[in-house]
## 1
Amino acid sequence: MADEVIYKTDLKQVDWQQMKSTLASDAFNNGRNASQLQKLFENSYAAVIAYVGDRIIGTARALSDGVCNAYIVDVWTLSQYRKQGIASAMMKLLLAKLEGQHVYLFTNDSVEFYQKLGFEVQPTGLGMVVGQWLQNKNLN
Ligand SMILES: CC(C)(COP(=O)(O)OP(=O)(O)OC[C@H]1O[C@@H](n2cnc3c(N)ncnc32)[C@H](O)[C@@H]1OP(=O)(O)O)[C@@H](O)C(=O)NCCC(=O)NCCS
C-alpha cells in the first residue's frame, strides 16, 4: 500500500533542520541553512509541506502581494515519491490561495509538469542576484 501523504499549509512544528538535511540529501538545498529555510517559509504568502508520518517529502511556496501578482518557488518532491501526484496536489493547494492573481514561476526542466496544471510559457523572464547569493549583512 502507498504511504499516506499529509499536506500541511500551516508552519506549526516544522522541523527546519530535517527539511534542510532532506533537501540537501536530495540535491535541492540550494545552499540555504535551517534558519534561512524557516525565515523564507515564514515570510512566504502561502506554503505547503507534504509529510509521510513525520518525514518531510515535499514543499511548495508562493510569494505574493495578495492582490495581483504571485511567484511560485521551491516546488520539490523527494525523489522516491515522485510521479505520484504529490507536487500537483501541493500546487493545487497553493493556487487555491492565489485566485485572481497572475502567477509566474521559473523552471529549467519541468515545463511539462507546469503545463499540465494550466501554466503557459510566457515571454522571456529576466533575473539577477543582487550581490552574492544568500549574503545579506542586515540579516546575518
Ligand atoms: C518537478 C517535480 C516537483 C514534480 O514532482 P512530482 O511529485 O513527481 O509531480 P507529479 O507526480 O504531481 O507529476 C504530475 C505530472 O507531471 C509529470 N511530471 C512530473 N515531473 C516532470 C518533469 N520534470 N518533466 C515533465 N513532466 C513531469 C508527471 O509525469 C505527471 O504526469 P501525469 O499526470 O501525466 O502522470 C519533481 O520532479 C521534483 O521535485 N524535481 C526536482 C525539483 C524541481 O526541479 N522542482 C521544480 C523547480 S521549478
## 2
Amino acid sequence: MALLELDGLTKRYGGVTAVNDVTMRVEAGEVRAVIGPNGAGKTSLFHLITGVVTATSGDVRFDGRVLSGLSSYQRCQAGLSRTFQLTSLFPEMTARENCRVAAQARLPRRWQPWGGASVFGEASKRGDEALERLGLSAVAGRPAGLLSHGDQRLLEVAMALSQKPRVLLLDEPTQGLSVEETLTAVETLAGLFAGGGLTVLLVEHDMEVVFRLASKITVMHRGSVIADDVPSVVKDDAAVQAAYLGGYA
Ligand SMILES: Nc1ncnc2c1ncn2[C@@H]1O[C@H](COP(=O)(O)OP(=O)(O)O)[C@@H](O)[C@H]1O
Ligand SMILES: [Mg+2]
C-alpha cells in the first residue's frame, strides 16, 4: 500500500475542470514532483490533498485512511504538513520562534498548563533541528521578516519540517526567487532529501528544479496526468515536451 493515494480526484470550478480524474500513488521515501505548465492544475491538486478545497469527486487516502471531510488542520495532525506561506510567517518573531510555533501546532497537550513546559521544550528542539537541516542555524535568532528572500522560502520549509511530517508538501518552493537564490535553495533541498527518510510531494513548474530534486515525476496538463515515471523517462516523453512548449508558447 502506498503512503499517499489519489483516486480519480476531480475538481471543477463552474465550467473549468482544474483537476481531472487524477490517480496517483506516492510510496514512503519518494520525492515526487508534480509538474506542468501554468494552469495545469498543480496548485488545485495540492489544495485537494491538503484539504483547502473539497473535491468534486474522487478520494485522497493517506496511510489507508480516506481523508474526505477532514479539515486542513486535521490533515496536518495526521502527518501531512505543507509549506507555510510567507503570509503565515510572523515577521517580528525570530526564525527559531516561527519554527517552534509550527512544531507546537502538531504536538498534543499543547494548551494544557501542565503540558506547557515539556511541549515548549520538545517543540523548540524540533524547530532547531529543522533549521539546521535547512542550513538556517546561523540566522535562527534573526526576525523572520529581516531574512533574505531565499532564506524566508527555506524557513517556510523548515516550519513544515518542524512538524515532523510523514509527507512534506511543497508548493513551488523557489517561486519568486532570483536565479542565484534558486540555485542555493535547490542545493539545500537536494541535501535535505538526500539524507533520506522523508516522503515529499513537490509541486513545481520549473523543469530544472524538478529534475534536480525528484525521484519520480507526475506531469499534469489541463488538469489531467499525461505522464508519471522516473525523471529519465519523463524527460524524453513527447507529450510532455509538447505540453511544455505549448504551455509556454
Ligand atoms: N478558485 C478557482 N476558481 C475558478 N477557477 C480556478 C480556481 N482555482 C483554479 N482555477 C482554474 O483551474 C485551472 C488550474 O489552476 P491551478 O491549479 O492554479 O494551476 P497551476 O497551479 O498548475 O498553475 C486554471 O484554469 C485556473 O484558472
Ligand atoms: Mg500553481
